[in-house]
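Materials and Methods. Structural model of NAD-dependent epimerase/dehydratase domain-containing protein. The 381-residue sequence of NAD-dependent epimerase/dehydratase domain-containing protein from Glycine max was retrieved and submitted for structure prediction as follows.
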Amino acid sequence: MARVNLDGNSIPMLAICMIGGGGFIGSHLCEKLMAETNHKAVVVDVSSEKINHLLDRSLPWAHRIEFHQMNIKSDSRLETLVQTTDLTINLAAIYTPADYNTRPLDTIFGNFIDAIPVIKYCTENNKRLIHFSTCEVYGKTIGSFLPEEYRQDPKYFMLKEDVTPCIFGPVEKQRWSYACAKQMTDRLIYAEHAENGLKFTIVRPYNWIGPRMDFIPGVDGPSDGVPRVLACFSNSLLRGEPLKLVDGGRSQRTFLYIKDAIDAVALMIDNPERANGYIFNVGNPDNEVSVKELAELMIKAYAKVSGAPASSLSTVDVSAEDFYGKGYDDSDRRIPDMTIITKQLAWKPKTLLEELLDVTLQYQHKTYSRAIERELSKPSN
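The predicted structure was written out as tokens:
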């Protein structure tokens, strides 16, 4: 039976160039495309590790997925791949907060300069582009500048794609290099649309989490690497170490299960008439907790998964400068307004935070616990 979109029209088979498609988001999107559609995935990345389970030539979708190992900074093959596919999805980014003030040049180049050729190729070849931005482009919330009595009202922290201003810290706070680079990319895409007719959709993820997110330092990533909060906390749980709460874990965030997020992206792919020209917040405002509360929930979930007593797992407060280095700054809350994506794509998140943490920590424990045990059992020099 032919698949139809939200307007009842048949969905044609698309060849999709997925830049950065071998990572966390790309691997889940590839699984969705292979299992539930007839689209073809042309994956471009420096590594295929997270999609290797999909590349076995004996699998029924083998003819619909291919991997091209390349660094888009220097590989001329990229233009041909954009030219010969129907849709480009740009997932490539430097996205770990620990890098923003320690590697600001790489952050700016990786998130703005390297995106320029992708946008240019799509415009020149009349190809549709789905570009992954970030909720960090909004910067600080209006609420963070208001007197304390106003700070309990969510309307001052609600982020709207077509209304909310982008408020960043001073230049010396290099943590905002990522948000600035992403915002400039958004503005370039919109300018190409306005002046040259680029067909685009911009996605602003709000803390998508789930299996295969980031890496565990010393196991499948650098031992001195600092991944995002879910993997940082997972690493500490696996090692039986205290979970480090930056500035006490006061910042509040909303978290979205990766499977729910991928459902939203699939709707964007299959409904171009409803998605072109739009910027979409993709998050779950019902899953808002402080980072400290997230740590407590993860401790509870990991104790259930691993059998370790929750009393043996703890947290410790650290300063932002000690953890991230000089130049760190952040927003206090980020709550996505969901009006536009609900209206255009009839999408709503489904998975509660406790449920998605259970699934994710089951994966983390199953995937990494033995490797961590072997590492910890090695005699110290």
